[in-house]
Backbone:
């Protein structure tokens, strides 16, 4: 079958890591139909908007989207900028209805010493952080800053509907049934009304899954237990802001954010009957290393594997990519972010080639 993919490399190291993911896909001799467009800061500079109409139409017409990273320092340094690179990814999630973000966190045996945690704590970790994507403080209104010094003020509104919570929790329980059958729901029900809604709806959904173990946990306590006993977790289901924070924290279990892929899924199906999704590494644009050829492409490559699995049903091909990544690590090959004594440090392109050689 033809895999129609919208490739949106974005800013910083996005184009570099996307190139290696595409090379790995081509090495599998898949029938690829690739369409590329600008998004993020580079699109603002060239076209005046973070998410041009062409890019949005391309994503809507595609079976799946491969997304690199967006962000530019000059926009971060100007809080009053009317357009921000991050509006590209937020707009894509909202328009495509991508409400569930799957962030696998897996501790590779070869990288146990790369983690900031002790090897005996990290060994055997295999979890998914399931983050709600289309609600919460990132989308609630009112939102904004007003006033002049010394009387400036700002507001962000955390807003959720019962339907948004329910569909995320159903996804969590369905995922757990195919794994270790344990769901942890992380909220702040002690101080937030939205947290109490999350807990109420989660308790209702759990009644349909008596075969799945369930627990509530405050998000701050969850952050602590992620470092204290990460093997306890299977599926962590949580709202947008907490999911963003907890998954970045969990990156340290693997040794680097350069090792964590993600999939953003909705309810819509593509031409092949599978879930249309957007696939991206969780790291940012990392402009400080852009163009130096030292970015770690493995999270992007693993995101491409997730794309084959979820949006095309190509499980064997996805397995081949994941196994090739593991073999490259077992052979002592590293990028700069995960280098260890006695290992061989490779460039971005060399790491991509190493994965291809082990397919």
Residues:
């Amino acid at each position: 079958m033809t895999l129609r993919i919208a490739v949106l490399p974005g800013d910083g190291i996005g184009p570099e890591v996307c190139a290696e993911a595409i090379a790995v896909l081509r090495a599998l001799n898949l029938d690829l139909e690739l369409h590329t467009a600008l998004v993020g800061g580079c699109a603002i500079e060239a076209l005046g908007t973070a998410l041009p109409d062409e890019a949005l139409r391309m994503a809507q017409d595609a079976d799946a989207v491969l997304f690199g990273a967006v962000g530019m320092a000059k926009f971060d340094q100007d809080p009053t900028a009317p357009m921000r690179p991050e509006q590209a990814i937020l707009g894509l999630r909202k328009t495509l209805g991508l409400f569930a973000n799957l962030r696998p966190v897996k501790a590779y045996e070869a990288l146990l010493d790369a983690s900031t945690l002790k090897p005996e704590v990290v060994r055997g970790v295999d979890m998914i952080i399931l983050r709600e994507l289309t609600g919460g403080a990132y989308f609630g209104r009112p939102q904004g800053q007003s006033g002049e010094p010394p009387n400036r003020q700002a507001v962000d509104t955390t807003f959720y509907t019962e339907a948004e919570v329910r569909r995320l929790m159903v996804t969590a329980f369905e995922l757990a049934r195919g794994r270790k059958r344990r769901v942890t729901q992380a909220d702040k029900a002690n101080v937030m009304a939205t947290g109490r809604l999350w807990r109420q709806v989660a308790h209702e959904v759990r009644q349909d899954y008596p075969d799945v173990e369930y627990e509530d946990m405050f998000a701050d306590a969850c952050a602590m237990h992620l470092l204290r006993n990460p093997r306890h977790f299977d599926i962590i289901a949580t709202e947008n802001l907490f999911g963003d924070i907890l998954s970045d924290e969990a990156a340290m279990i693997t040794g680097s954010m350069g090792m964590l892929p993600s999939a953003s899924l909705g309810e819509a199906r593509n031409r092949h009957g599978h879930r249309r999704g957007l696939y991206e590494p969780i790291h940012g644009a990392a402009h400080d290393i852009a163009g130096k050829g030292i970015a770690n492409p493995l999270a992007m490559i693993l995101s491409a594997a997730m794309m084959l699995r979820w949006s095309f049903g190509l499980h064997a091909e996805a397995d081949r990519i994941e196994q090739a990544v593991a073999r490259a690590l077992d052979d002592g090959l590293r990028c700069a972010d995960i280098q260890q004594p006695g290992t061989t440090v490779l460039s971005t392109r060399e790491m991509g080639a190493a994965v291809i050689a082990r397919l």
The CA atoms of residues 43 and 49 lie 6 Å apart. The chain has a mean pLDDT of 95. The radius of gyration is 20 Å.
